[in-house]
């Protein structure tokens, strides 16, 4: 196969955000509270004491933000819908004004030839449902599908791409294993049921989508990372395999292979519940694409003190790390895309998130100088090209994130944006990574080849070396 030096026609060039992370005004115009609204106001829950009350004020500034997207040359924008804006109690009564916000956003995007890529659940669960047990409650799946159906009816004629769930693994792991996200519990016995109900909700929503004629496509978004053993000892090799089963196979195996990974019982101490064949058939409802969120790899060692996979990550001395402490490892993107393709068969993939938080300097002269983020994007986009060369059916790339935003339990202290946000004045400033990405998009990737980039300043070749 000849080596592609640019991305195919029709490739989605996007950036991504999520509702609670950027919108602000969480209770405006009849919206109900979400579990994240409640959680972020708990004393001590968020590292820097911030919350989603205002953040980027996107709810009121979305028209200007769409203008900025156009300036970058994006042809797609991935965002999520706040379930409790549309259904304040999570079910039953629809809040027309909440729905209108998304209708107007989508209309503005379409006027600018930017395709909406809509995620239905990016972690903010209506508080009314959370109080009844959230995803640990079997009925939550049905309520999610009902909400999805409202969205398909209202917007199905103008949304080409839908994702049901974003990173369900984080909902399980951070919500029920580490307790750093709502409901903030350490309840590992609930974790398999939460995972299963998320999958049932996903599948019921896909069925609802298929039940009416929609021209669009629907998929699931998962976060994946290669798990590399810290040593060649059998303990570490097995630990890496368990960690991969827990993170990478937990959701994709049942959706794409019709059964849970055979390694899961080892992970939950032989306690993986017996789920019915009927549920498993439902969960395997075919999807149109898989969304992959990629940030880093994990070098893994055996660690009996770290359930459920009894594995922990080892920081790589000498490697570059982002402000999140995540190793910069571009080759891992190629590796994980090839892994999906070989384990589950060649199928359309969107990179639905990829990006990095760094400690950026303040804006100066109308720009923010973020050379490390420029290099991060440069190297990961090249890794995406490598995946195409290896035969992966890659259809799109979404930078995380369009704007600096509320990074969950870290609050606004971690900045992932292509666009800097001054939270006090709400002023937006394009970072140099945004100009770089604009050049890549304009050249369909050709600007990635060779050492330099057109437009902005060149990236020194030393920065672009392996890994
Ligand atoms: O900010 C998050 C996003 O909400 C989900 N994926 C990972 C991002 C960075 O942590």
Q: Can you describe this structure?
A:
The protein is α/β, with parallel strands linked by helices. It has a single domain (12-464), classed as TIM Barrel, CATH 3.20.20. The protein is built from 15 helices and 13 strands. An 8-stranded parallel barrel has the order 1-2-3-4-5-7-10-11, surrounded by 5 helices. A 3-stranded mixed sheet has the order 6-8-9, with helices on one face. A two-stranded antiparallel sheet has the order 12-13. Helix 14 links the parallel strand 10 and strand 11 (394-400). Helix 3 packs parallel to helix 5 (96-111), helix 8 runs antiparallel to helix 9 (191-211) and helix 14 packs parallel to helix 15 (432-442). The chain is globular, with a radius of gyration of 21 Å. It starts with 11 loop residues before the first strand and ends in a 25-residue tail after the last helix. The structure holds 5-hydroxymethyl-3,4-dihydroxypiperidine. Residues 18, 21, 167, 293, 353, 400, 407 line the site of 5-hydroxymethyl-3,4-dihydroxypiperidine.
